[in-house]
């Protein structure tokens, strides 16, 4: 299975969220055991880096880099096809924000069978199965 991981799960894992970090760690561990392919995007990388950059916590960014490399998680770029799919999704779903539309579009273009996030409103998307962290 190919699984897209949104930004929040990485934040919870790297920053050690008291409830969600364990669930994310277990989900990633299970994916590795199952030989699943894990995918995220440059958008995740950008979103993740904001808070550590403001707080002068380059160690958190290095931890993300190390994890992405160690687990061989694909970091996918945005292209015109992804952007087109994103605007089509935004036209269909009024609640959908631009970055979320891009993330979902990347997951779809990459052939992911699951999108893991903690954004409950994204469960309204019908084009790809969405699972929030508390459901893991």
Walkthrough of the structure:
- With 136 residues, this protein is an alpha/beta fold.
- It has one domain (2-75, 113-135): Rossmann fold (3-Layer(aba) Sandwich), CATH 3.40.50.1010.
- It contains six helices and five strands.
- The protein has helices at residues 7-15, 20-33, 42-54, 58-70, 80-92, 98-109; strands at residues 2-5, 37-41, 74-76, 114-117, 130-132.
- A five-stranded parallel sheet has the order 3-2-1-4-5, with helices on both faces.
- The radius of gyration is 14 Å and the shape is globular.
- The model has no long low-confidence stretch (mean pLDDT 96).
Short description:
With 136 residues, the chain is α/β, with parallel strands linked by helices.
Which keywords apply here?
Rossmann fold, 6 helices, 136 residues, alpha/beta, five-stranded parallel beta sheet, 5 strands
Strand and helix layout:
Blueprint (H helix, E strand, L loop, with lengths): L1 E4 L1 H9 L4 H14 L3 E5 H13 L3 H13 L3 E3 L3 H13 L5 H12 L4 E4 L12 E3 L4
Parallel strand pairs: 1-2, 1-4, 2-3, 4-5
| Cα-atom radius of gyration | 14 Å
How do the strands of the widest beta sheet line up side by side?
Answer: 3-2-1-4-5
Summing up helix and strand content along with how strands pair, one would put the structural category as alpha/beta
Portion in beta strands? 5-15%
What is the CATH homologous superfamily assignment? Answer: 5'-nuclease
Considering DSSP H and I runs of 4 or more, what fraction of the residues is helical? 40-55%
Poorly predicted spans: none
What gap, in angstroms, lies between the N and C termini? 15 Å
CATH T-level fold name: Rossmann fold
Our count of domains comes out at 1
Order of H and E elements: EHHEHHEHHEE
* Main sheet summary: 5 strands, parallel
Number of alpha- plus pi-helical segments: 6
Q: Number of DSSP strands?
A: 5
CATH class: Alpha Beta
Shape: globular
């Amino acid at each position: 299975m190919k699984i897209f991981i949104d930004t929040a799960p990485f934040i919870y894992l790297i920053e050690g969220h008291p409830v969600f970090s364990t669930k994310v760690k277990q989900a990633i561990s299970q994916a590795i055991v199952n030989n699943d392919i894990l995918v995220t995007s440059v958008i995740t990388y950008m979103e993740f880096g904001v808070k550590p950059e403001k707080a002068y916590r380059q160690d958190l960014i290095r931890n993300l880099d190390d994890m992405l490399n160690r687990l061989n998680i694909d970091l996918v770029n945005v292209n015109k096809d992804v952007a087109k799919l994103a605007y089509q999704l935004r036209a269909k779903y009024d609640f959908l924000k631009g970055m979320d539309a891009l993330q979902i579009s990347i997951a779809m273009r990459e052939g992911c069978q699951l999108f893991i996030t903690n954004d409950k409103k994204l469960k309204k998307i019908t084009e790809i199965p969405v699972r929030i962290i508390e459901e893991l």
